[in-house]
Write a structure and sequence with these properties.
- The structure is a single chain.
- The chain contains 13 helices and nine strands.
- The protein has 344 residues and is an alpha/beta fold.
- The protein folds into two domains: 3-205, Spore Coat Polysaccharide Biosynthesis Protein SpsA, Chain A, CATH 3.90.550; 234-339, no CATH class.
- Strands 1, 2, 3, 4, 5, 6, 7, 8 and 9 form a nine-stranded mixed β-sheet that branches.
- β2, α2 and β3 (62-66) form a beta-alpha-beta unit.
Length: 344
């Protein structure tokens, strides 16, 4: 390929023992309506038939690299970033499906928004028993605020502007297994603009070996390190108990049934974050307040067995006025609390 006919997009897909679903993933990329791309497949020392499957495709846009041994996802990704010829780099996982108009819509979005470095999308999960829609914040400030709790960009959905990644020396780093993308976005958001599209352009496969199910303890330990880094940048000194609360809030997993003491601890923690950020100005204040308020509503909505106590705690908080959800959700919370109130 000469310098005058370089592709606009490099689709980067590391592969490690993904033979079961690999053909479907490759076909979903080759069937894109946008055709000006190279498909960079990096076989990271697979011991199954992944390389054989990838080799069987004869499309000239495929560039297949085979590593002699397994170097790990971070090394494979960085090799891909350094080797990519495209103006944009699209991520793809070897067990998922990109919808046909994915690249077309994302390239158009970045063309129209030249300041954006990373563009993700919403996705749908699919499995044998359950499918669901996964949504993330759309604008840069909302993404920034969400990063306090977890990744706000779905890794395999992104289209990245290579020139800005190079300009700011943005690459994946070791030390954050299963959360290398969350760590990258947490640095990227400080120097570049991020955005998500509300279009569902990607199907994420849920299975026993998928990234969402693999090594959950290692993944959450990595995520905790990033959350702690954000808290420190915001001037928040967290105790061990507060870090447990923060993880529970981040994952949406709380010890049911909730007690009054627990929701009071959650509220104190959220207010501690708010107050610290007002001084440190680490996160955009308006979007952080929305993020904290949404989590406060969620906690109170989990507390309806407490009856009117849950309602009173919710409305006594200044966070209640910042809730970004629908009013009917608050109304439903109130009705449910009243109906479940032991003293009614």
């Amino acid at each position: 390929m000469s310098s005058c006919d370089l592709p606009r997009v490099t689709v980067l897909m590391p592969v490690y023992n993904a033979g079961v679903y690999l053909s479907q993933a490759i076909e979903s990329v080759l069937q894109q309506t946008f055709t000006d791309f190279e498909f960079l497949i990096i076989d990271d020392g697979s011991t199954d038939d992944s390389y054989k499957i990838a080799s069987a495709f004869s499309d000239a846009r495929i560039r297949l690299i085979r590593l002699d041994r397994n170097m790990g996802l971070v090394n494979a990704l960085n090799l891909g970033l350094n080797t990519a010829r495209g103006e944009f780099i699209a991520r793809m996982d070897a067990d998922d499906i990109s919808l046909p108009d994915r690249l077309s819509k994302q390239v158009h979005f970045l063309d129209v928004n030249p300041a954006i470095a990373v563009c993700g999308t919403w996705l749908k999960t699919f499995a044998e028993t359950k499918n669901s829609l996964w949504a993330v914040p759309l604008n840069h400030d909302a993404i920034h605020a969400r990063l306090l709790f977890g990744s706000a960009v779905f890794h395999a959905t992104v289209l990245m502007r290579k020139a800005l990644l190079n300009e700011h020396v943005l690459r994946y780093v070791e030390g954050f297994p299963y959360a290398e993308d969350y760590e990258l976005w947490s640095r990227c958001v400080l120097t570049c603009r991020l955005a998500n599209m509300s279009d569902v352009l990607y199907y994420y496969r849920i299975h026993n070996n998928s990234a969402g199910n693999s090594e959950p303890d290692s993944k959450q330990h990595s995520a905790d390190l990033i959350r702690l880094r954000w808290l420190q940048q915001a001037g928040v000194k967290a105790t061990d108990e507060e870090m447990i609360l923060h993880r529970q809030l981040s994952l949406g997993r709380v010890p049911l049934p909730l007690s009054v003491a627990y929701i009071e601890k959650i509220h104190a923690w959220l207010m501690k974050i708010r107050d610290a950020n007002m001084s440190a100005d680490t996160f955009p204040e308006v979007e952080l307040l929305k993020e904290l308020s949404d989590r406060w509503f969620w906690i109170c909505n989990q507390s309806t067995p407490l009856g009117l106590t849950a309602v009173l705690h919710y409305f006594r908080s200044p966070l209640s006025s910042q809730y970004s959800g629908r009013k009917r959700a608050v109304f439903a919370f109130m009705i449910k609390s009243i109906l479940r109130w032991p003293g009614r």
